[in-house]
Amino acid sequence: MNRLAISTAAIVLVLLVVGLYSEQPAGTSPRFGGTFRGYLTSEPSNLDPARGVDVNEGSVQAKLYDGLVRYDESMRLVGNLAESWEVSGDGRQYRFRLRQGVKFHNGQPFTAKDVLFSFDRLLDPKTASPRSWVLEKVVGAKERLEGKAEGVAGLTCPDAYTVCIELTEPFAPFLSLLSMPAGFILPSGSAAAIAQKGFFEKPIGTGPFQAAARERDSYIRLEAFPGYHGPKPHVGAIELRIIPESLKAEMEFESGNLDILQLNPSNFQRFTARPDNAGRVHDVPAMNVFYVGLNNQAAPFDDVRVRRALNLLIDRQAILAAVFQGRGVPAAGSIPPGILGHSDGLTGYGFDPARGKALLAEAGYGPGKPLKFDLFQKSSQAAFEITRLLQGELKKHGVEVTLKPMEWSALKDAINRGEAPSFYLSWYGDYPDGENFLFPLFHSKNWGAGGNRAHYKNERVDAMLAEALRIQDPDKRGQAYDAINRLVVAEAPWIYLWHTPETYLLGPSVKDMVFSPLFAFDKGLTIRTAQ
Amino acid sequence: MLEFTLRRLFGTVPVIFGILAIAFVVLYLVPGDPAQTLAGPRASPEAIARIAHEMGLDRPLHERFLSYLGRLAAGDLGRSAVSDKPVADSIVEKFPYTFKLTLMAMAFSVGIGLLAGILGAMYRGGVVDRLCTVFSVAGISIPIFLFGLVFLYVLAGKMKWFPTSAYRVGDAWWPLVLPAFTLGVRSAAFLARIVRSSLIEVLNQDFIRTARAKGVPPMRILFRHALVNALIPIITVIGLDLSSFLNGSVIVETIFDVPGLGRFAMDAILQRDYPVIQGVVLFSAFIFVFVNFLLDLVYAWVNPRIRDEMFGAAG
């Protein structure tokens, strides 16, 4: 290369750099400040939205990226990268109008191309995404997943700010699914880097926060993105430490090194009793259900009388009072209060030991031949606190339970294979919809890892679940889910336990913060700290 | 010397190969499906199968082992199944913390252990000896997590003498003092016992009595004659602790937020992240072999008889 070319290239480069810098709008200094110091209970191993499945990963991803839609703090589905959308009368065509002027953290403009790129990537067999089911109802998704097609026929963009999605059949919870991390949008301009995998060490999204610093197993620091398209966050940075031990988190909170502490039954009393913590305790109604799953396909729980009996022998109110200070509500079915499909009219089993024992006797169990079974559980303090009480409660009525604590991965394996006769677990919803509390948990095609760990099967329930997905009207859909819930409860595939709130204690430097039941996927927009 | 080194180096190859093979089989037998762990809740069997295929889990065990060895020979430790990050990069990132922690813990361990052991042997049966015995019995029998939590709660939390955590420790040493002390206490207690009993054994031998009779000053007898001859078991204990510390301490690293190898390995085990577990096992095996090799050299240096055996009398 000759000198002229080199110097020309140098000049062009300088001009480019100057141009990039002068493009930053002057005088729009952000009004945010302060750092919010929170923590996660495990390392968010993967910040790839197509790969992350746990709550800790999701909570970081929600701050870095945006989806087309999201749930706001009051659980309403609102536009995020989509400004508006229309659904066709038959429920199969979705047309999203995208927000204009949105920029990624690296300055690239956001367009429909990025949506197509991200959705196509989720279905690309090379991505091997465990969450590809989010888009499985899109026309051509199956072919793409099986490697039989290059693109996805049902994903199109008529112009730079419109995205059209065609589904193979009406699927009412589709928008809810799009709010999940798997629906987050990545920059198509970084496709090469994303394919190289190094991208997610310092990911780029359109979210209100950008990745600033990170040390694995130690912390991750997110800083407010000045170019965010929505209402700007109040706080300048969020620093999330990785603290698996709750005792450690307590100490750090007490030493003033954390601004938030999640309370649990064992430390609740100690922290809430202190007068200086008054007004700083927040109970957040969480979208969860705790249960003892029963393997419906094997003795003794293939007998519905035994399953019903166990439901009648547990005094839920007493345990809630003893362990959760009376917070939380007994679960009548699997759908928590406040979620589409929940009905106060469903009362569930209640506590009726006489009837329970009669049912057991009918099934052939009594003082001469007591019911005995193994209860599999995670070997954690929190699980023991509950299972010991359950064991004691059942013992009073002549039922002998042996606790089988196991390490988490091994436990899941045993349950999914159907080797655990009974197991203590919980289910936290990904989106506020009855579908999320019935379809994965009780449809027979989801046996095992799919979510139906009780191996429950009822063809009528299967058919009704499939039918409910096609109902567009929310009220009617809610009624449909209530009906299914009742049907399942009558067959008692689980011992239904309770829905408990999550409780957080805020530090003195937090001025304000709005908690939502989907707190784990909060975007961090409502946190205000004293500076 | 060179021949000895080479011989030892070649001797390690089957050891490391054996460790890798055992780790591979054990991981295969441990319950918990890595593809399922990655897939998370609500994963279809097809999705799990796709992930298993991507991870190569659908191939027979021997094939997987051979291809692993092949990649290893090319210097590739693979990528984490969970984060996609190269395993070698993570080890390089994490090891310095564990290494610093080890150095400080060894300093505590050797310093306190030698002192308590020597004092115990010198004043055998006296008050000092009893105090040292109490220390070593307590140190050995109290589990390390209890030490860690008590130190953390009292010394860092209540007294505020130390930081509560080594988080964002960077190049600093100070936040590692308390974790290193916790890690060192147990090993110091054990060392104190070994030092005391080895010293007492040597002090009872004839040549010491001869030295005393000749009027050699007591301190000179202790350090010049007794301690040197009692060194072999002491070095063995120090060496074992050294290699175990270098492989990372899960408990101390978790309690004090040290982002070292121990926590990294633990996370990988919980998530069934096979490439990472294999990588850490391999690294640990190397450390162990390397420390043992160093130990052999130290033995030889300390004890001329061993030196002659190893290098030949002419050495």
List keywords for this structure.
heterodimer, A: 531 residues, alpha+beta, D-Maltodextrin-Binding Protein, domain 2, Dipeptide-binding Protein, domain 1, Dipeptide-binding Protein, domain 3, 4-stranded mixed beta sheet, 16 helices, 21 strands, B: 315 residues, mainly alpha, 15 helices, 0% strand
Short description:
Chain A is an alpha+beta fold and 531 residues long. Chain A has helices spanning 3-23, 55-64, 112-123, 141-145, 174-178, 191-195, 246-254, 268-272, 304-313, 316-324, 353-362, 381-396, 408-416, 439-442, 459-468, 474-491, and strands at 35-40, 69-71, 77-79, 82-87, 93-98, 155-156, 162-166, 209-215, 219-224, 237-242, 260-263, 281-284, 288-294, 329-330, 372-378, 400-406, 422-428, 494-499, 502-506, 510-512, 528-529.
Question: What's the CATH C level of the largest domain in chain A?
Answer: Alpha Beta
Provide a count of the helices of chain A.
Answer: 16
Secondary structure: helix percent of chain A:
25-40%
Major interchain interface with per-chain residue totals: A-B, 53 and 50 residues
SSE string of chain B, helix = H, strand = E? HHHHHHHHHHHHHHH
Q: Outline the biggest β-sheet of chain A.
A: 6 strands, mixed
Q: What are the segments of chain B in which pLDDT stays under 50 over at least 5 consecutive residues?
A: none
- CATH level-3 fold name of the largest domain in chain A: Dipeptide-binding Protein, domain 3
Provide the CATH architecture of the largest domain in chain A. Roll
